[in-house]
Amino acid sequence: MTEAVEPTALDHGSITLAEGGALLVLDGEIDKDVVRHFRVTVRPADWPARVDARGVTFMSSAGLELMVHLARKQKRAGGELELVEPPTSLRLLLNQTGLSRVFRSVPAPA
Fold this sequence. Notes:
It holds the Pfam family STAS_2. This protein is an alpha/beta fold and about 110 residues long.
C-alpha cells in the first residue's frame, strides 16, 4: 500500500506523490486546475520517473502536457517515464495523440 505525501487533491481529481516520492499517483479528472495545483505544490526536481494512472477518469490537454514534461525530464536524465497500467480510455488518448511512443507502460506491482 502506498502512503501519500504532498497531496494535490481538488474536488474532481488529484495528483499525489507516493512511495516516498518515487511514484506519482493520478486519480479522477486530471485537468488544468489539478495540474496547476500540482505544479505550484511540487518542484520539478521532485517529479518521479513512475506514474500510476490507473485511477484516471479524464485527462485534459493540460494533463497530457504534464505527462510530456515528466517524460522530457526523465529523457534528459537518461531514463524513460514509466506509466503504470493506464486505463483503456487514457491508452486510446495516448495512441490518438502519438504520445504512446513517449511513455513505457508497465504492469502494476503485485
